[in-house]
Specification:
Layout: H1 9-28, E1 40-44, E2 47-50, H2 51-67, E3 72-75, H3 76-81, E4 94-101, H4 103-107, E5 114-121, E6 124-131, E7 138-142, E8 147-149, E9 152-154, E10 165-168, H5 170-174, H6 179-188, E11 190-193, H7 198-206, E12 212-215, H8 220-232, E13 236-238, E14 254-257, H9 260-273
Parallel strand pairs: 3-4, 10-11, 10-12
Antiparallel strand pairs: 1-2, 4-5, 5-6, 6-7, 7-8, 8-9, 12-14, 13-14
Helix pairs in contact: 1-2, 6-9, 7-8
């Protein structure tokens, strides 16, 4: 049974926006460039967490529970402490929280960084919200209702350059068996690194600042909101084999593109790199 909004779409967007803004104002921005040594710890190799992450997630989880009490909640930091929470990703309704995306940038005193919140129904993203705490840019989307930036409808568009811009994650470039794909991309596209912040990369493809993104690791809190927003704006986001993105499939590898034409062009390039093996077979239905 498809979930129906308990309130008008605009009311839900407004409620989530206010909550995300509150988390940014109370937990994140007061600590930007003011973190003490004891405010930062390493969760694992090359993965940092700060007091801002934890406090932001606490604010968001409490507020989202009030907005939709029957939905499960999976936050990045809570799931790190208790991986069993990931089993809730396929539940009838589930909030997914990235309380501070781009933590490494935040710790360095730089940007970009942001907040991501998604709502999933049986593993499929149906709502997505992305806030840039510095600029205030707010991206919102609900399944079948289009995407909005700062309240204005948005249609994803290509950058318009002679050579499309393809942002490639460092994890993808280093993954075994990916070398040929990356080399082929570099010969056909203007390749740039992903800015270690999905909350920046997805809006970039919606606004014409980037054409394609290629990710290896696709944790739900990093991608659920962005995928929904991009697709609702007319872009494409799928697994490497063309399958739809799900928050509960625990797969790796994701291609996102500003337009279906760019997605097809990208897949054709990758197919050549793997000698027609079909790993990234073009899906005409995109």
């Amino acid at each position: 049974m498809t979930f129906v909004l308990p309130n008008a779409q605009a009311s839900l967007h407004a409620a989530v926006h206010a909550l995300m803004r509150d988390a940014a104002d109370r937990a994140i921005m007061p600590r930007h460039r003011r973190l003490a040594v004891e405010d930062v710890r390493e969760k694992c190799a090359d993965e940092l967490v700060t007091v801002a992450d934890r406090e932001s997630e606490s604010i968001l989880a409490e507020g989202l529970n009030k907005i939709l009490p029957k939905a499960a909640i999976v936050g990045e930091e809570a799931a790190d402490a208790d991986p069993a929470l990931l089993d809730n990703l396929g539940s009838s309704l589930c909030w997914i929280i990235d309380p501070l995306d781009g933590t490494a940038n935040f710790v360095a005193g730089n940007g970009p960084f942001g907040i991501l919140v998604a709502l999933a129904e049986h593993g499929t993203p149906i709502g997505g919200w992305i806030l840039d705490p510095r600029s205030g840019r707010f991206v919102a989307a609900f399944r079948g209702q289009g995407a909005f930036i700062n309240g204005e409808p948005v249609t994803a568009r290509a950058s318009g350059g002679d050579v499309p811009i393809a942002a490639i994650s460092s994890l993808f470039a280093r993954a075994p068996g990916r070398e040929g794909i990356v080399d082929q991309l570099r010969s056909r596209f203007q390749t740039v690194p992903i800015p270690r912040c999905a909350a920046e990369q997805y809006p970039a493809m919606m606004m014409g600042n980037s054409d394609i993104a290629l990710f290896e690791r696709t944790l739900p809190w990093d991608h659920a909101a962005g995928v929904l927003c991009l697709v609702e704006a007319g872009g494409v986001a799928t697994r490497l084999d063309g399958a739809p993105y799900r928050v509960d499939d625990r797969k790796t590898g994701l291609i996102a593109a500003a337009t279906p034409a760019l997605a097809i062009r990208f897949r054709e390039c990758c197919n050549e790199a793997i000698n027609g093996a079909g790993l990234l077979a073009v899906r005409s239905a995109q």
